[in-house]
């Protein structure tokens, strides 16, 4: 799905996301026009993927840091634990997490309930 972003607008980028800035289709890191600054909150799926978006002013939310901690705690595989721990350390060293506001907490609760009612597992922390 193509997401249109206005210059200076903060959007959430998920793994494999595409967005448009200034009316042209662009992949993260492909539109370097000075009038096209895309500010993004990176979804946890981006933080755990092998490809990082480029050309964006990025931030992470406190919820994503919590999800990364959760991922470290639940793995039983020592090699995967090491990978997840390195990823968590790099993320914490790179970003000061955005706080969870009351609005974010309400939406998170709503989404977790929607996922739960469909039979999928929601967050456990």
Give structural notes:
By secondary structure, the protein is an alpha/beta fold. Helices cover 40% and strands 19% of the residues. The chain is built from 4 helices and 6 strands. The chain has a 3-stranded mixed beta sheet with strand order 1-3-4, with no helix packed on it. The protein has a 3-stranded parallel beta sheet with strand order 2-5-6. The N terminus is likely disordered.
Provide tags for this entry.
125 residues, alpha/beta, 3-stranded mixed sheet, 3-stranded parallel sheet, 4 helices, disordered N terminus
Count of helical regions: 4
Number-wise, the strands total 6
User: Main β-sheet, in a few words?
Assistant: 3 strands, mixed
End-to-end separation: 30 Å
Overall form = globular
A few lines on this structure:
The protein is of the alpha/beta class and 125 residues long.
SSE inventory with pairings:
Layout: E1 2-5, E2 10-13, E3 18-21, E4 24-26, E5 38-42, H1 44-47, E6 56-59, H2 62-74, H3 78-94, H4 102-117
Parallel strand pairs: 1-3, 2-5, 5-6
Antiparallel strand pairs: 3-4
Helix pairs in contact: 2-3
């Amino acid at each position: 799905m193509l997401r249109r972003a206005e210059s200076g607008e903060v959007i959430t980028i998920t793994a494999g996301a595409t967005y448009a800035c200034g009316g042209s289709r662009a992949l993260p890191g492909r539109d370097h026009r000075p009038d096209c600054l895309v500010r993004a909150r990176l979804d946890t799926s981006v933080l755990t993927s092998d490809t990082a978006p480029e050309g964006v002013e990025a931030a992470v939310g406190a919820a994503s840091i919590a999800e990364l901690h959760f991922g470290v705690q639940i793995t039983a595989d020592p090699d995967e634990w090491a990978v997840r721990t390195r990823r968590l350390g790099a993320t914490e060293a790179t970003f000061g997490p955005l706080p969870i506001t009351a609005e974010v907490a309400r939406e998170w609760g709503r989404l977790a309930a929607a996922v739960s009612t469909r039979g999928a597992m929601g967050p456990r922390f």
